[in-house]
Design a protein that fits this description.
By secondary structure, the protein is an alpha/beta fold. It folds into two domains: about 240 residues, Spore Coat Polysaccharide Biosynthesis Protein SpsA, Chain A (Alpha-Beta Complex); about 70 residues. The chain contains eleven helices and seven strands. A seven-stranded mixed beta sheet has the order 3-2-1-4-6-5-7, with helices on both faces. Helix 9 packs antiparallel against helix 10. The chain is elongated. The relative contact order is 0.13. Bound molecules: uridine-5'-diphosphate and magnesium ion. The site of magnesium ion (MG) has 5 residues, from loops.
């Protein structure tokens, strides 16, 4: 056999990285040991999502030391879901593993994901059994959120599942063809079908640093999940409209009956103000909901790229060295 021929890569690990200077080296070390233990060719795509704390340089240094590290450097912060997407676009492996870079998803679980893949499953997602070191608020809001999504969308997104998962190349290709910009990857990967299975794992606390997912970003992800997979909010306007009309009908009948009996019926400014506020509130709420969908259509219509890389990884590296 020709030893200089490039080996086909069996596993690609994708890790989105945003300001993880304190923990990234340790993540790489742990991941490296786990992947080497598998005895097959692998690569890790470290996607720098516009870090400002020196993470980018560390990624480039790791790539210089280890050819299996593929650096993908964003020109600014595009967000976690987009960073994972960039990794998916550039992954070369037969199976792709998406994992957080903060060691909350333990790399030690990867061999278990791979085992299921070898049994023939094309999507193997890791289900959070325990969540260490996360606040009560984060745990309950996340759990309520997943339950809500499953109720109102047409797809079944497995409960308590994040993006930590393995995707077969075939699934990856389908997902890579779905270029929607408001992305909810765990929903998209449930939507595509294929043979899927979940395996339980204990989600650890962060190795270092703080969460880069403040409440605002979580809310945006939740909104993308809803608008991306359900039109129920739009239909709510109709249902509420019907309910208000039904109320109006009852009111009209009672009013006619009272008029026939020549008795006075609910009058006065307080009632008028109450009704105006109620209807005004409902109308504005539903205009807002319609606005959410329209703004997404507008974003799609612009057709901008999902992310911008600082050159291709190779040329970027060689420029750095000069
Ligand atoms: N991340 C990213 N871009 C962002 C926010 C986060 O690439 O805008 C990365 C982050 O470095 C980590 C992963 O996405 O590897 C998960 O983020 P984080 O741990 O902050 O989220 P949490 O676990 O608190 O939900
Ligand atoms: Mg985390």
């Amino acid at each position: 056999m020709n030893s200089t021929a490039p080996k086909t890569i069996r596993y690609s690990v994708i890790a989105p990285v945003y300001n993880e200077i304190e923990g990234l080296q340790e993540f790489y070390r742990v991941l490296h040991d786990v992947m080497e233990g598998l005895g097959e060719a692998w690569e890790v795509l470290l996607v720098d999502d516009g870090s400002t704390d020196g993470t980018r340089d560390l990624i480039l240094t790791l790539a210089d030391q280890d050819a299996r590290v593929v650096p993908l450097i964003f020109t600014r912060n595009f967000g976690h879901q987009i960073a994972v997407t960039a990794g998916m676009d550039h992954a070369r492996g037969e199976a792709v593993i998406i994992i957080d870079a903060d060691l909350q998803d333990p790399p030690q679980v990867i061999p278990e994901l791979i085992e299921k893949w070898k049994e023939g499953y094309e999507v193997v997602y890791a289900v959070r059994r325990e969540r260490e070191g996360e606040t009560w608020f984060k745990r309950t809001s996340a759990s309520a959120f997943y339950r809500l999504i499953n109720r109102i969308t047409d797809i079944n997104i497995p409960l308590d599942t994040g993006d930590f998962r393995l995707l077969d190349r075939e699934v990856l290709q389908v997902l890579n063809g779905m270029r929607e910009r408001e992305r909810f990857l765990r929903g998209m990967s449930a939507w595509v079908g294929f043979n899927q299975i979940g395996i339980p794992y204990d989600r650890k606390s962060r190795y270092a640093g703080k969460s880069k997912y403040p409440f605002k970003k979580m809310l945006k992800l939740a909104l993308n999940a809803v608008t991306g997979f359900s039109t129920l909010p739009l239909q709510l306007a109709e249902y509420t409209g019907f309910a208000v009309l039904a109320g109006w009908l009852v009111y009209a009948i009672v009013w006619i009956v009272f008029a026939a009996l020549k008795k006075p019926f609910l009058t006065g400014q307080a009632l008028t103000i109450f009704i105006i506020l109620l209807l005004g509130g409902l109308i504005l709420t539903f205009m807002g909901i319609i606005g959410e969908y329209i703004s997404r259509i507008y974003d799609e219509a612009k057709g901008r790229p999902l992310y911008i890389l600082r050159n291709t990884p190779k040329t970027y590296k060689s420029k750095e060295k000069k």
